[in-house]
Amino acid sequence: MSNASPGAPLDTSNDPTGDQTGRFVIQPNGRPRPLSPHLQVWRFHATMTGSILNRMAAGALSVGSVFFVAWLAAAAFGPEAYATFSGLMGSPVGLLIWFGITLAAAYHLTAGVRHLIWDAGSSLSPKAATSLTWLSLWGALVIAVGFWAILFATGKVTL
Amino acid sequence: MSRQTKAFVKGVKVSERHGAGEWTAERLSSLILIPLALWALWSGFSIAGAGYEGVLDWVSNRVNAALLAATILISIWHMNMGAKVIVDDYIHTPGSNRALSALIGLGCLLLAAASVFFITRLALGSAPLPAGLAF
């Protein structure tokens, strides 16, 4: 590795308030402090993928919460507003959105349980953590697909 | 940020800033949301395709209305904490970090207030909204 990377603010090198990422901190030997490897250098493995998907599910659910409040608003605004809302949400695109919300909720639930198991100090060996992650991924898929399969099978939802 | 406490509980040093309280709140909200999420899934199944009358009938049950409000409020609380963690992970400039966190908090507050307002009206069987708001 050569000297400080171009653009490194050398004058504030060891001031942690200037650059809170610590990206351009210069060591006493004059070289920038080495960085820990990030996504592009890591080989994907189950636990890492599970964690990334969990954060994505959380983001999707945040958007989904707006749809939930919109549903409450539609009901509170009366029959016409509710008919308009359920017409939109009953369309193929609307059903896809609600399937996505169901999948995100199911995975955030199973991955959350997985996280709580880890927090309790269990299943922390690489092998156990990987199996638990696969279980949470497949569990979520079974919950979401099963839920919608039953909705269609009972005729509560039709395309 | 610079407040330093040297507290010990059972010989274990307590976080010098504020990490422990947030950690506990995240786990507590997760634990409460497990049964509530399962209840919401079951409720979603029971009112799917029920239409306007069906939803009004379901939410007029006080237990359903209370559990619905609890689910949404605790979800928004949990969501606010999660969003704050994501902001802390990626936004390192103190000013932007605080501004974005405040904006997210405001959005969460708005969602929470709106849902409580709508659920209360629905549970009490109030008249459809524009009428209620006009006078």
Task: Tell me what you see in this structure.
The complex is a heterodimer of chains A (159) and B (135). Helix content of chain A is 62%, strand content 0%. Chain A is an all-alpha fold and 159 residues long. In chain A, α1 (46-76) crosses α3. Chain A is elongated, with a radius of gyration of 24 Å. Residues 1-5 and 7-13 of chain A have low confidence and may be disordered. Chain B is mainly alpha-helical and 135 residues long. Helix content of chain B is 77%, strand content 3%. A two-stranded antiparallel ribbon of chain B has the order 1-2. In chain B, β1 and β2 (12-13) form a beta hairpin. The interface between A and B is large, with 37 and 40 residues.
**CATH H level of the largest domain in chain A: which superfamily?**
Fumarate reductase/succinate dehydrogenase, transmembrane subunit
Identify the strand order in the major beta sheet of chain B.
Answer: 1-2
Helix fraction of chain A by DSSP (H/I, runs of at least 4) = 55-70%
Distance between the termini of chain B: 48 Å
Give the class of chain A from helix and strand content and strand pairing.
mainly alpha
| Unreliable parts of chain A | 1-5, 7-13
Q: Percent range for helical residues of chain B?
A: over 70%
What is the number of helical segments of chain B per DSSP (H or I, 4+ residues)? Answer: 5
How many E-type strands of chain A? 0
- The proportion of residues in beta strands of chain B is under 5%
* CATH architecture classification name of the largest domain in chain A: Up-down Bundle
Highest-level CATH class of the largest domain in chain A: Mainly Alpha
Characterize the largest beta sheet of chain A: strand count, sense, and whether it forms a barrel.
Answer: none
